[in-house]
## 1
Amino acid sequence: MLPLIDAHHHIWDLDANRYPWLQDEPPIPFRYGDYRALRRNYMPSDLRHDAARQNLIASVYMEAEHDPADPLRETRWVHDIAAREGLPNAMAGAVFLDRADAAAIIQAQAAMPLVRSLRHKPKGVARPQDYDAGHRIPGSMRCPTWRAGYRWLAESGLHFELQTPWWHLGDALALARDFPATRIILNHLGLPADRSAEGLTGWRDAMARLSDAPNVLVKLSGCCVPGRLWMAALQAPVVLEAVRLFGAERCMVASNFPVDGLIASYDAIMDGMRIIIADLPEAAQRRILSGTAAETYRLPAP
């Protein structure tokens, strides 16, 4: 089995840290519906157990919406866990680009040994028909304050982890072109949850335009469809289209565990990904399963 680097997963200790979305009532609206099953500790030992069959050689922690009052506390905690457990091997920390402390937080995060990138989910609209290319929604990628914080990433050398639905990818393209020195790593394939013909056409067109920016990479992850089992046949069209558009050298797989554990097992997702890309040349498979992540997050090459 070819080696795997999981480029996007979480761990959390609900006894040691505060995660408002996991611990507060009522639960927030969530794309997979009821997520109360996630209200349990999930640590490196749990990830290793879930990934036991997958030849996992390294992993990348993604910020888990820890208490925004102190984003650096999460980073320090992850470093402590990694020192004890050997996982994760790199991480994406949190920042709030439209806050007055954005530059200071970026600088502090960049000084942490495991931090390679930062995430701040930009504001947007919930439906493609509500999107307006001229919008200036506060906290969005078009927001002047948000963009003023974003510009500090280039100086830090950190990448930006972007989680946004596909109808906001035009904003992402403008961001990529305006700040070419900063790599954007699109999380979860741009969230193609709507698999209708119209939904897939909109997603494909948006991804095709975004692929023109050479500083954008894509995580083949988080593409579960609410209410449907994770099956290779269901996911193959979006995964292979992303690989066709961006090339294997800009694509990487990730589990989004334990969140995507609401929909499928770790093996179902990763075995499915291996099936989907099985007809690609072995060099492309290796890039997607580990090589792109190793290069992007500065991990030892498998």
Note: The beta strands are 4-9, 56-62, 90-94, 115-119, 159-162, 184-186, 216-220, 251-253.
## 2
Amino acid sequence: MNRYLLATVLTASSFISTSLMAADVSFPHIETTGIGEIVTSPDMAVFSVQVSEIRKSAKDAKSAVDKVIAAFNKRLEDEGVARIDIESTNITLRPEYQYKKDSKPELIGYRANRNVNVTVRDLAKLNSYLDGALGDGINSITHIKLKVSDESKFIEQARQAAILDAKEKAASLAKGFGENVGGVWKITYRTSPRPTLMRSMEMDSSANIESTYQDAKIIIRDQVDVVFRLED
């Protein structure tokens, strides 16, 4: 049968890959892009805090920061956070100078900085951890990221939804043109994108954190490009 049918399906949020569009396919076929999307609620979080202190000597600056970090870590552990879920970065020390016009820079002390990343596995406790951090002497909450613990399960669900979407599109198109879908000739899959939030969780300590994270939803998407043969 001397015929050639090419159907390309695009969605508003994705495009068929260059390699798929450039494929030299000489037999009747349909190309589709399947999109899968799963919306779920976060059940855990990771937040980062920072301690910054300035003292006359580097030793005193380091000691001040270490004291705050020790108190913060102890409180978290007392409240049930596993030690493995508390990650403290290395301390940084640098001299601080005062600059005045027409004079040499004057050394006024040394600044010590240290960050701590905390994984929260009980989302209901996140807000109390954040409030406690500021009470422990933490200078700022620099980052909050909501997550879902069983991420791989939802990624697999999104992937299977994308595969089904590609099949359904191909079957619908073939039916509309009076054709039948045969086997799969080519599958193009790219690494699935990381889960995203419906709203930004980049905030400082002045934000209404509790209401924001409780209302948030996580979107997990996946995509697959498929070339289907058409039956002769």
Note: Residues 18-40+150-195+211-230 form a domain with the Translation Initiation Factor IF3 fold (CATH 3.30.110.170).
## 3
Amino acid sequence: MLDVAAPAAPARVPTARRYLMCEPEHFTVEYRINPWMDPSRPVDTGLAVEQWTALKETYERLGHRVDLIDPVPGLPDMVFAANSGTVVEGRVLGARFRAPQRAAEAEHFRRWFLANGYRDVVMPSRINEAEGDFAWTGSLLLAGTGFRTDPQAHAEAQEVLGVPVVSLQLVDPRYYHLDVALVVLSEDLVAYYPEAFSPGSRRVLRRLYPDAVLATADDAACLGLNAVSDGRNVVLPVEATHLAEQVARRGFEPIPVDISELRKSGGGPKCCTLEIRD
């Protein structure tokens, strides 16, 4: 029998990105708005700052630009910048949070965008938690719903951003946002955890991405899919070893980071990272 070599993985090309982040100076877990949060567990804010700083420096080392928004006392989850805006081709759709504890974050981010020259900024009428549930592929906006974002916010996003939207239904409360169940690796490839989605949404994902990387339960449980890809480098939690192996086989370079302290609030690298697409 002939020994047929496996096809070589395609060459992956990174593109420089621009990210907005917020230092977790006031990070703590003092309320419970998702299954990961437990106010009775101790939180080391200093360690959270160290891990966040290492994440920021990782982006900079990879050649990406990182802008900062000032943290605000009394808003411990403001570090999760991804939840506060969706930016596509310079258009900004702000956020409207479901949890009252986070509602004030939206206005601080709106002011940041205006102060930094963005004039096409729309604040939503429907609840949407921005890149928590909106994932831009470069051609489609994948949009999650089921726990936080109002399904009617998907139509609002399409109207404001002027891009086609594909709705996906989340069904597992542990994976309450799309960004903890799916990561866009490149325009034509995603990784996702099938059990986080409804049967119909799984069929949609199989149709759109027949060659997708399928994450395991262990990948999902360490929030391994809360990752950030620049088209080649994939920054993901250090515990997501199986997922790292799978993306490496597809030609990507996994970049593991320790974000364990911020995971106590249900966040990972992507939650800390709002991408600005000008």
Note: The helical segments are 45-61, 105-115, 152-161, 199-208, 217-221, 241-249.
